[in-house]
Amino acid sequence: MPRRMSRRSSVLEHDANPSLRAFAPLRESLLALTMTITGALVVCRCGLAQEPVFGPPVHDPAKIVGSDQCAKCHDKEVQRWMRTPHVATFDTLHRTPAAKEIADRLGLPSIKRNDTCVQCHYTRQQQNGRLRVVEGVSCESCHGAAADWLNFHADYGGENVTRQMETSDHHRQRIELSIARGMNNPHNVYLIAKQCYNCHTVPNERLVNVGGHVAGSASFELVAWSQGIVRHNYLRTDGAANAQGTPAQLRVLYVVGVLADLEYSLRASAAATEKATFGVTSAQRAARMKQRLHEIQRLVNEPLLAPAIEAVSTVELRLGNSAMLIEAADKVAEAAYTFADQADGDRLTPLDPLLPRPEQYINSRAN
Ligand code: HEC
Ligand code: HEC
Ligand code: HEC
Ligand code: HEC
């Protein structure tokens, strides 16, 4: 089927394939919903960032505003982010012999100026009609290109309305509409998790098999990798402290990580065309995550996880099975979104032995 074919190639290339959008009704329906609630708000759907909720991320360089814009209000977050490898890669990657070797094997003359390395190591912005690499992995790599939601996400309902005065209805609408406008808002942490895995599973066969790039961050696990150097939770204390996630939040984060890992290793498996490092590593990863999901379900028996388990119960991890693998990945995505939205972390205490301990959190080279 031609549609499946184009979906498969878009997993490889991460491009904005319009056919993906057919599978991602949620953001559209959220938008329709919020339009009805807010009534007066006139939002042109056509001009919005339409990243599909249930498909690989899309980043529109025309809607990137850059971290300087965030720094105006999120100075602490920016300071923290500056210490991460996500920032460092901008200055270091193109100088490393390993990067040059990969680029040579792929026939790429420049590391910053090609469509491949940019997808995961850099942020590209459109300036006066030209595409420029402006940062490494940036605020917007994880939270979404911000032009359509920047002013909106922090508006409590008028010029003189403070956080304390905001009604709960307005709060809910603000979060929903920010998501509809393309924000990967941590109120649904799946929206951010999918960004992590879309880079950290390295879903690009040629990059791995021909370029010799590492086939994903083997030990990537969402709690350990997000709660160390990457953590920047200053909102709760108005900038005074970088808060740890509560045990309930961390349990939800852990499960969302396993679901997103499963989803993105299924997508990578679907993109494999030969039995070599990329395909084998991706399929092994998917099999491992399927097993972990079963282990989780044995411990918590959570109805919200049933659709994801069902989706992968019969799908075969083999070459030439792309359509089925992508279909399973889309269902896992939907389950992950719903789980992140509705799960009650307080009921997931049996998972505690599976969670990494604070001393296992990744503080990395930069710390
Ligand atoms: C004009 C000030 C301002 C700017 C500029 C700004 N923010 Fe915010 N941001 C806020 C405020 C205020 C909140 C807290 C909203 C609340 O109380 O829920 C917030 C909350 C957030 C949240 C938490 C989710 C939420 O809805 O509470 C994220 C993530 C975020 N901002 C990211 C960004 C990023 C990324 C940028 C730059 C692209 C940015 N912000 C620019 C003021 C700003
Ligand atoms: C699909 C995402 C993705 C793409 C595309 C990608 N990388 Fe990476 N790269 C990563 C991730 C994730 C890591 C960190 C892996 C780890 O955990 O060790 C990484 C690590 C590296 C490293 C080792 C770390 C370092 O800084 O020395 C090199 C070298 C590298 N990449 C080069 C490249 C080059 C060159 C390109 C373009 C030809 C490229 N990468 C494209 C995701 C990607
Ligand atoms: C746009 C792609 C991209 C996204 C999105 C992304 N990363 Fe990364 N991440 C990278 C790359 C590339 C590196 C390696 C940088 C280097 O060393 O050159 C990296 C490195 C890291 C490291 C340092 C690992 C080490 O061994 O030092 C951590 C921790 C990390 N990422 C966590 C996360 C988490 C958690 C998320 C999601 C919340 C995330 N990343 C989202 C691309 C990405
Ligand atoms: C590697 C991915 C990644 C990058 C880069 C990133 N964030 Fe986040 N951000 C997250 C995740 C994941 C969360 C939710 C964390 C949690 O629940 O522990 C979050 C949460 C937030 C929050 C809410 C924190 C709170 O106290 O509740 C704000 C505000 C925010 N980010 C702003 C920013 C800004 C500004 C930047 C750039 C300087 C940035 N983020 C860069 C992944 C990222």
Provide a concise account of the structure shown.
By secondary structure, the protein is mostly helical.
Q: Record the strand order, biggest sheet.
A: 1-2
Largest sheet: 2 strands, antiparallel
Order of helices and strands: HHHHHHHHEEHHHHHHHHH
Number of domains: 1
Query: Could you list the spans in which at least 5 consecutive residues all have pLDDT below 50?
Result: 1-50
Percentage of β-strand residues: under 5%
Query: Measured on Cα atoms, how large is the radius of gyration?
Result: 20 Å
Structure report:
This protein is mostly helical and 367 residues long. The chain has one domain (2-360). It is built from 17 helices and 2 strands. It has helices spanning 2-13, 18-21, 25-38, 67-71, 75-81, 85-92, 97-106, 117-121, 139-143, 168-180, 190-200, 205-209, 222-226, 247-271, 277-300, 306-312, 322-342, and strands at 123-127, 130-135. It has a two-stranded antiparallel sheet with strand order 1-2. The radius of gyration is 20 Å and the shape is globular. Mean pLDDT is 87; it is low at 1-50. The structure holds heme C (4 copies). Residues 67, 70, 74, 77-78, 81, 86, 137, 139, 141-143, 186, 189, 192, 226, 230-236, 245, 249 line the site of one heme C.
